[in-house]
Specification:
6 strands; single chain; two-stranded parallel ribbon; two-stranded antiparallel sheet; elongated; mainly alpha
C-alpha cells in the first residue's frame, strides 16, 4: 500500500469526475484530499463506507524480532486515520493481517484476535461447502478426515473441499504421474502435511520458530482445546530452563516464567498461537511440531492444571472442557481424576439420551483404568440397557450392586431402581415390583423425593399393565405433587403421559388429551416427546384418523433413530406396521417395518417379540390372499 495505489483504487470506485479529479490532484497532501473526499461522500450520500485493507502483512518489515510498517504504508495509514477522525464521520477501516505490528496509528483501532472456527461457526462454514454440506455425496469418513486436517482453518477447508470433489489435486498426488484416490491423497496429507502448511503459512514465518519457541509450542500441543494462559504457561515452563536462562548448571536451573510470557507474546504476534476472544490459547496443528518424548508427564500436568481451573474453580464447565480433562487424564495415567470426570460425563450423557456416547466413555475409562467402581458400572448398565444390550446391562447392574457397600444406601437404591426398569422392559413385572418396593422404602426413609416420585410413577405403570388401572392411576397421581414440589418437570411429564394412556383405556379421551397437552408444554427432552407422539398416534388411530396417526408415528420413529433409542424404535415400527397393514393394506411396507421390529424386540428379549411374529404371519397371509 502506497499513495498511488490507494488513490487509484479509490478513484476507480468513484462515479463523479469532479471527485476523481480532486482526489488525484497531488498538489495537496494526501490527508487533506482524503478529508475532502470523505466529507463530500458523507454529505452527498449520507452513507458511511467500510475500507478493508486485506493481507496487510505485505506492508510490514521485521524489526527487533517483531514487525513495523514500511515507511510508505505508514504515511498512507496515517492519512486515512486522520481524514476519518477529522470528519467525525462514521467511516471505518478494517485491517486483516497475519502478524501483529507496532504503529502509533493502532491506538485508533480495536484489535480483534482470531482463533480457529469451532462449534456452530465451523458447522455453518461446512454447510456452505459442497463436499461438507447436507447433500454431499462424499463419504462421511473422508469428510471427517478432511475436517480434522483443516483444524478449524476456513482457508484450508475450502481447499480440501475442492480436493474431495476432485477439482484440485495436491502436488504430492501428481508426482511421477500418479493418479491417486481422494482417500490416498488425504492419507498422504495427514502423514506429511507440507502442502497444507504452504496454503496458510508463509515460509518466512516458519523461519521465526527457533529452538526455544519450538519447544514451547511443542509442549502446548498437548491441549486440543483453547486453554487459559495460566494453563498454557504451566505446561510450557518445564521446557524453559537452561536454554532461556543461559544457566549451564542443570542442578540450579529454574523455570524462567518471564521468558515464557515473552515467547507467548511473540508467538501470538507472529500468528503461531490461536487466541480466542476470552484470551485462551491453542497451538495450530498445521505447524511442523510433535509432542515431546515426556508425553505422559505432560498430559498429567495438563490434566491437573485444567482440573483446577475448569473443574474445581469454575462455576460451570462445558461438555467439551470436561472431555478435554478426561482425555488428558487418561493419557497422563491420572486414574482417579479420569474416573471422577468420566462418571460426571456419563451421567450427563445418559440424562440426555446419548447412550452411545455414554457407552464409549465408560468403555474407554474401564479399559484404561481397570476400575470396578460401582458408580461407573451403574451408569454403564443404564447405557447398555437403552442401547439394547440387555445381557450386558444385567451383568453390569449385578456387578454394581455387588461392589456397592451396604452403607451407601442411596446409591444401592438408585442401582436397584434402574435394575427394576430393566425387569419392567423384560415384562418380569413380579420381580420389578419387588425391586421398586425395596428402593421406595429407602428413598422415603432418606427423604429422596425424586427417587420416591420415580418409584411411585413406575409402580403405577406396572400395576396398570397388570390390569389394575385404578391402582395405577392412584400411584401416578401420588407422584405428580412430589414432582411439582421439587420443580421436576421431566418427572411430571412422564407421569402425565402415563396418566393419559390410562385414561384412554378408561375411555376418558378428552381428559387424556389435556394431560398430553400439559406434558408437551413442560417437556424439554426429545425422547419423552417421542413417547407423547406415539401415544397421540394411538389416540388418532382409535378415532379413525389413520393418516394423522401414521404421521405422528413417523415423527416419533425419526426421534428414536436420532437419539439411538433402539427399543423405542422397535415398538414404534410395530405400531406403524400394524396400522399400515390393517388400514392402508400396504402389506410390503408393513412387513418390512414388522420384520425390523421383530429383530429389535428379540435383541431385548421382549415378550412382545412373539406378538410381532404372529402379526407378521397374519399380514403375510393377507398379502398372499390379495395376490
Amino acid at each position: 500500500m502506497d499513495e498511488p495505489s490507494l488513490v487509484n483504487k479509490l478513484a476507480a470506485a468513484l462515479d463523479s469526475w469532479e471527485l476523481r479529479e480532486a482526489l488525484q490532484d497531488n498538489r495537496e497532501e494526501l490527508k487533506f484530499r482524503l478529508r475532502r473526499l470523505f466529507r463530500l461522500l458523507e454529505e452527498d450520500a449520507a452513507k458511511p463506507f467500510l475500507l478493508v485493507l486485506d493481507d496487510f502483512e505485505v506492508n510490514l518489515e521485521s524489526c527487533n524480532g517483531g514487525y513495523v510498517l514500511q515507511p510508505e504504508a505508514a504515511e498512507v495509514l496515517e492519512s486515512l486515520v486522520w481524514a476519518i477522525q477529522d470528519n467525525y464521520a462514521p467511516h471505518r477501516l478494517i485491517i486483516t493481517c497475519r502478524y501483529d505490528f507496532e504503529s502509533s496509528q493502532l491506538q485508533s483501532f480495536y484489535k480483534q484476535k482470531m482463533d480457529s472456527l469451532r462449534g456452530a461457526d465451523w458447522q455453518k462454514k461446512c454447510n456452505r461447502l459442497t463436499a461438507f454440506g447436507s447433500e454431499s455425496q462424499v463419504e462421511e469418513a473422508l469428510q471427517a478426515q478432511a475436517q480434522r486436517l483443516a483444524d478449524g482453518n476456513p482457508r484450508l477447508l475450502e481447499w480440501l473441499d475442492k480436493v474431495l470433489l476432485n477439482l484440485e489435486s495436491p502436488q504430492l498426488a501428481l508426482k511421477r504421474g500418479e493418479k491417486n484416490t481422494v482417500a490416498e491423497i488425504l492419507a498422504r496429507l495427514e502423514a506429511d502435511p507440507v502442502e497444507l502448511r504452504e496454503k496458510v503459512l508463509a515460509k518466512e514465518l516458519l523461519k521465526q520458530i527457533d529452538q526455544p519457541m519450538r519447544e514451547m509450542l511443542s509442549r502446548g500441543l498437548v491441549f486440543e482445546l483453547p486453554v487459559p494462559r495460566e494453563a498454557f504457561i504451566a505446561v510450557c515452563r518445564g521446557g524453559f530452563r537452561d536454554k532461556l536462562t543461559g544457566n549451564t548448571d542443570n542442578s540450579e536451573a529454574k523455570p524462567a516464567l518471564n521468558n515464557v510470557d515473552e515467547y507467548i507474546n511473540l508467538a501470538i504476534a507472529l500468528g503461531l498461537l490461536e487466541v480466542s476472544p476470552d484470551e485462551s490459547l491453542r497451538v495450530p496443528r498445521i505447524l511442523p511440531l510433535k509432542l515431546p518424548e515426556e508425553a505422559e508427564t505432560l498430559h498429567r500436568q495438563a490434566a491437573e492444571v485444567l482440573y483446577r481451573l475448569w473443574w474445581e474453580n469454575a462455576e460451570e464447565i462445558s461438555e467439551k472442557q470436561g472431555e478435554e480433562i478426561h482425555r488428558l487424564a487418561l493419557e497422563g495415567k491420572a486414574k482417579n481424576m479420569a474416573l471422577e470426570i468420566t462418571i460426571n460425563l456419563v451421567i450427563s450423557a445418559n440424562s440426555h439420551s446419548l447412550y452411545l456416547k455414554a457407552r464409549q466413555l465408560c468403555e474407554l475409562t474401564l479399559e484404561n483404568t481397570e476400575t470396578e467402581d460401582y458408580h461407573l458400572l451403574h451408569q454403564r448398565a443404564i447405557a447398555e440397557q437403552h442401547s439394547g444390550e440387555i445381557k450386558k446391562a444385567e451383568e453390569y447392574y449385578q456387578q454394581a450392586l455387588k461392589n456397592c457397600p451396604q452403607e451407601d444406601k442411596e446409591q444401592r437404591a438408585e442401582i436397584i431402581f434402574h435394575f427394576a426398569t430393566l425387569k419392567t422392559d423384560q415384562e418380569d413385572f413380579e420381580e420389578a415390583i419387588k425391586l421398586y418396593d425395596q428402593c421406595l422404602v429407602t428413598f422415603e426413609n432418606m427423604g429422596n423425593t425424586i427417587g420416591q416420585a420415580g418409584a411411585l410413577n413406575n409402580l403405577g405403570i406396572i400395576k396398570a399393565k397388570l390390569g389394575h388401572i385404578e391402582e395405577g392411576i392412584s400411584l401416578l397421581e401420588r407422584s405428580i405433587p412430589i414432582f411439582e414440589s421439587i420443580d421436576h418437570n421431566r418427572g411430571k411429564v412422564g407421569a402425565l403421559n402415563c396418566l393419559g394412556t390410562l385414561k384412554i383405556a378408561q375411555g376418558k379421551v378428552e381428559e387424556a388429551i389435556l394431560d398430553y397437552q400439559e406434558s408437551i408444554e413442560l417437556d424439554d427432552r426429545v425422547e419423552s416427546k417421542a413417547v407423547t407422539l406415539s401415544t397421540l398416534g394411538i389416540i388418532q388411530s382409535s378415532k379413525g384418523n389413520t393418516d394423522e396417526a401414521i404421521t405422528l408415528y413417523q415423527e416419533a420413529l425419526a426421534i428414536y433413530k436420532g437419539i439411538g433409542d433402539i427399543l423405542g424404535k422397535g415398538r414404534t415400527l410395530k405400531m406403524l406396521g400394524q396400522l399400515l397393514a390393517d388400514r392402508k393394506k400396504q402389506f410390503t411396507t408393513a412387513l418390512d417395518y414388522l420384520q425390523q421390529s421383530l429383530e429389535i424386540l428379540q435383541r431385548f428379549q421382549s415378550p412382545e417379540a412373539e406378538k410381532v411374529r404372529q402379526m407378521i404371519a397374519y399380514v403375510q397371509k393377507m398379502a398372499d390372499e390379495k395376490q
